[in-house]
Amino acid sequence: MKILYFDCEMGVAGDMLMASLYQLLEEKQQQEFLRIMNGLGLEDVSVSANPTKRCGIGGIQMSVQIHGTEEGAHDHEHHDHDHAHGRDHHHVTLEEIRDTICSFPIPVEVQEDAVAVYDLLADAESHAHQVPVAEIHFHEVGRLDAIVDIVGVCLLMSWLRPEEVVTSPICVGGGLVHCSHGILPVPAPAVAHLLRGIPMYNGKVEVELCTPTGAALLRYFSDRYGQMPVMTAKAIGYGMGKKELPIANCVRVFQGETFASGADAIVELTCTVDDMTGESVGFATEQLLAAGAKDVYTTAIMMKKNRPGILFTVLCHVEDEPMMVRKIFQYTTTIGIRKHIFERYLLNREEKDLETEEGLIRRKDVEGYGVSRSKLEYEDVARIARKRGVSIEEAKNLLQ
Q1: Does the model's pTM come out above 0.70?
Q2: R_g of the chain, CA atoms, integer Å
């Protein structure tokens, strides 16, 4: 599976994401990208990619010049958003921004992605300022800067076409930030709204590290968040920010493939009991499997004071963990559950229905890592064995 993994432990902004993805391209693609970005039709706006170092690490910094000047609005995008009461002739509405994006000579799918990201931004500003989206206005300079970042990232993503996008927990920075509404805590309200439900943390630097445009782009394109999955990287991009900090202010993106299309994380939940009967243990196992556990098994152990006990091991998907914890407490007598999260290697699996003289038979085919094998569904084979009055092995031979 083709995958992109964004490492956002050193901050994230729209221009940093664009620069990191730009570095994944071949040289001819990079030239074509800059040609398209400079041909959007935005008056007095020019886009360039400049090799830059942060803390000795080399990468790319995207430069957006407006009227021949590097505005540097990327790090303060949310300062340039306002609502109707602060409107002047330098402000534009969301509808005007949508019209601008849809006028660009780029594929319709890229236009739609960019508009959708801007909608997320406007919704976040609306929520932060408690005013309707229609009353949110964007400062002219901030508009041009953010449009370039958003359209650039959307165009690059359409070229790279990953099958999955995974993002690390996002470092938002700390301290206070100055904006047109006063002094606000980091993350600013719009960023906090965009990152709801997404893992984030402050880090050790007292400065704003996550901008609204960066947050909106990650929210739109990311499929899931967490540690880097098991993958082989074929290219790595470093998108540099404009801040000189003790940490390298950059977004790092890994482009590569996971080992198997079904590779994922799995949660292992374990608990010990010494006061359950054999029947209760069996019943708990049945109920946990019925609730959706991927596997449940028990191990005989010796506990404190040499008491014989049972170790329950329950495997489930990450998203099923809260529910499975409740079920374990419900069906066992344990008072504590331990948890581990593992990356697992999986063979690609496919189930096929086979028409045979004995009726419909299910077969599981697996392959990957140079291995290929098949296995008939036990219940189907057992049905034939009972019907014929033969052993399981003889039933399998009948189906060959």
Answers
A1: no
A2: 27
Whole-number Å distance between alpha carbons of 305 and 197: 45
Measured N-to-C along each axis, helices 140-160 and 14-22 cross at an angle, to the nearest 10 degrees, of 30
Contacting residues for 291 by C-beta, under 8 A, at least 6 apart: 323, 324, 327
pLDDT surpassing 60 at residue 73: no
- In DSSP terms, 93 is beta-bridged to 137
Distances (CA, A) of 225 to 53, 170, 204, 237: 27, 9, 21, 19
Indicate the domain borders of the chain.
Answer: 2-258, 264-343, 348-398
Residue 171, both tokens: 């470092």
pLDDT grade, residue 90 (50/70/90)?
low
Tens of pLDDT, residue by residue over 141-199, are: 457 888 999 999 999 999 999 999 999 999 998 877 776 666 777 788 889 999 999 99
The dihedral region occupied by 195, where left means phi > 0, alpha psi between -120 and 50, and beta the remainder, is: alpha
Helix 140-160 × helix 27-37 angle, to 10° = 150
264-343: CATH topology is Alpha-Beta Plaits (3.30.70)
CA quadruple 260, 351, 296, 329: dihedral, nearest 10: 90
C-alpha of 343 from chain center: 16
